[in-house]
Amino acid sequence: MFDRQKRAVLRALQRPPEIDEIDVYGDDYPPTNRLAYEQLSDLLVGTVARGEGNSCLLIGASGSGKTQMVEQAIAALPGSPIIVRLSGYAQQNDRLAIREIAWQLAKQTGQSFLPAGEEDEDDEEHPDAIPLAANAPKDADDNPFIDPPPAANSGISLSVTLPLPAHLLALISMIPTLPRPTIIVLDGFDLFAAHARQALLYCLLDTAQACRAGPATAAAGMRSASGMAVIGVTARVDTINLLEKRVKSRFSGRMIRTACPAKVGHWVALTRAVLAAPLESDDGQVEKFLGDEAALDALRETYALTRDYQMLRRILTSLTMALSLSSPYPTAAKLEAAVTRQRCPSRFPPLHTLTYPEICLVIAAVHAQTSGHDVFTFEMLHEAFKNQVRTSQSAPVHVEGGGIGMVRCSREVLFAAFERLADLRIFLPAATAGGTVGREFALYRSAVDRFAVKKAVETIGQLNLKKWFTKAQ
């Protein structure tokens, strides 16, 4: 039963549930993604139900729900339109794109899109235009990564000759004549705009523009028997400026925008909906988890860095995989551990693991920055350390009636610690050292910030170091 609950959470992460934006933001906040979904649905319904030719751009930041919105709008359409999905990351030129279009159309319709008299000629002139069935290896039955061919009685034959780039316009112009409407989704639309002459975009948008709506179109014997929609998905807001003039004139100009969550409360509501997916009751553990201030701080900190849902999904996936029979409920500590795993590793070891001379030099560098010296030398840090040792011994910290001052370190020990900090890239060279300049006079700067040093000093817990660091506040 526990494994079923985990699988239910993971499925919910792959297809997150709908969150009522009115409940999260209130009545005064416009539900951006809900309006975008309604606009996209109306456009696709016009293509499927009335045979319209439409085109639009779906623009939004990464993780704002563009792909999920397209899939939901397609799933809610009446009937079963032909769906062609292209990606600018995979189809890097028009030749690869047209081959992918031919493959997907052949798979969904079961017919070739080349004239019968030209197939043999094309095969002789271009050996790479081979039947799709010949691409399968002989040991396809033993390869788990290859889908088995359809059954013989399915009526779909995959032995279809792939068209050549010269047939680009002819193939796309046939799409409106298909018995079902066609929806073409271009993921990474801005990458398709980088193709030579933008021939693919021109043909697609020109064909969609030429479609005429109305149920009487097919009955009249005209070529446009079905609707066609071209949906571009991109994260670049200036994509429309990348189109050539002739391509832009074929584009409808519809640009639908999506938005990332505008409040961290949206993430909290999404986390609550996802973790509540298990079949059994959680006895209020999810609400207890989301009521923990430490868990909310982890979500707020991550939300302040990025609003991408993919990051939240990776964090919650790691949190879900960390659950076990002995600890079946999420906790703030597990969430913080999952957040830490998603962040880049530190460029240097934790500061609280440094030795006493090394942490003293780091604190001295903080004092130098407070004094306005972002660039320092070893001699400057050595002088600051000696002054602090002299001050602490004249007025030591008293613990249980005894005085405790800072421990002295020789110049050689401090210089060895300084070189190790330079090797750890905690101190970085600020200028190229000349051949006549000793290393103790070379210019360096600190790569750690004040907050990290403060946290390390608090972790170490030495009163003298805390007192010295406090002076730099």
Structure keywords:
473 residues; alpha/beta; five-stranded parallel β-sheet; two-stranded antiparallel sheet; 21 helices; 9% strand; elongated
Describe this entry's structure for a reader:
This protein has 21 helices and nine strands. With 473 residues, it is α/β, with parallel strands linked by helices. The strands form three sheets. A five-stranded parallel sheet has the order 2-3-4-1-5, with helices on both faces. A two-stranded antiparallel ribbon has the order 6-7. Strands 8-9 form a two-stranded antiparallel ribbon. The two termini are 54 Å apart.
Largest sheet: 5 strands, parallel
String of helices and strands:
HHHEHEHHHEHHHEHEHHHHHHHEEHEEHH
User: Count of DSSP helices?
Assistant: 21
Q: Biggest sheet, strands in spatial order?
A: 2-3-4-1-5
Tell me the structural class: alpha/beta
Brief synopsis:
This protein has helices at residues 2-14, 21-25, 32-50, 66-75, 94-109, 116-125, 168-174, 189-192, 199-210, 216-219, 245-248, 264-275, 285-291, 293-305, 309-321, 332-341, 356-370, 378-394, 411-423, 450-460, 463-470, and strands spanning 53-59, 82-87, 182-187, 228-234, 255-257, 397-399, 402-404, 427-429, 444-446. The chain is of the alpha/beta class and 473 residues long.
